[in-house]
Amino acid sequence: MKSLFVRIFLSFWLAMGLILIGSVGVTAAFIINRSTEIQSLVPGELAITAEQRLVAGGLDGVRDWARDMRNMHPGLDIFIVDALGRSITKQTPPEFIQRRIARLQSEGLLNGPSRRGSSPGGDLLRTEPQITAANGAVYTLVFSQVPDWSPAVLGTPGIQALLLMLALTISGSICWYLARSVTRPVEKLQSSARSLANGNLDARVGAEFAYRKDELAVLAHDFDQMADRLRSLIDSKEELLRDVSHELRTPLARLRLALGLARREGADLGREHDRIEREAERLDELIGEILRLSRLSSAQQAVHRERFDFAALVASVAEDARLEAHAQNKEVSFNYVNPLTLLADQELFRSAIENVVRNALRFTALNTAVEITLTPEINKVVLEIRDHGPGVPEAELDRLFEPFYRVTQQARERDTGGYGLGLAITSRVISVHQGTVMARNAVDGGLIITMTVPV
How far lies 428's CA from each of 69, 405, 425, 433, in Å? Predict the structure, then answer.
């Protein structure tokens, strides 16, 4: 069953259905048993017993006898009337019994000689035996059988307790099964959640829920995904801390070296001071990029959205990069001129695009151009930036946007510029604006960075 809701609903429905069927079955069994007992009664024999009680105990004695008979046979009513048709019992006869008594009186049968119907299994509604008191007064016994379908059957001794026991047994069994099937996986989830909270990042519940197809299985799958994501984030943070410490150690080592050189006798203090200043600036730049990357982790609160011409922004970045490109015998190509309005953080987008363009300009070959293409589509805009450099190994494309990651073939060349944070910042900026960024190698060489942003 694929839905926990359906399982709970059908379980309660099944319980009610079984209780109803069981109740009807028990009631029918009682009705059959009661009818059999009543049909086996002989009116004549009942009249003999009633007359004995009447002679021995008077009217009170026969009244007690009638009460005892009703208690013994709940489906049977006994009314005792005198010669004038008056009932001497406390129960008031129903209307059809009153009509029968009136008819017997009109025919003069209530004060006639004693009649004892003795045929076993006779129709009790047509048999009115008479009894005679010690003073000669004649009383008539009128029997009335309650219909088998009457609610009075529920008053039969023991049937209410049996029905209650039946309902409790069925509902208890089904509810126990349902509760067990729900609480057992919940307990497993709770145990795994506590284990995860205590630092066990390998805590998972997927294997325990492989056979389930309901909401709890979805919850378990989401829990495992959350645990995987948490593990990935913590590993990423630890790796980031290691990378940060490693990257900070390089300029600090250069600073110490420059300081040591400056302390030597006869050192060129001006040159060493310039070197110390450059390393300090590099250190400040690195720390600034690290802080920017950290702030972008909570950029949903920091983003300042405004409407601006995205095409004009890209053109401005391209123009600034073009000035640097000419000095390196390179070119930057961008020809889109139509306005394209975007609701986003303009400064963050400028930073993101600059990071990609400058990275492409750094690795594109001499006498080639960095090609920037802007394509508006339905509800989104696609920005592609392509260089004509060596490209990136296919296995490393997905890691380009990780902080401090450098492609293997470029890792030996730290002096090419950058700290491996530019593309990571670009990825965060695009992600904050619900967009996507990806990298792929061009067929004829070079790397293409594609940024897709919803309009």
Answer: 91, 15, 5, 9
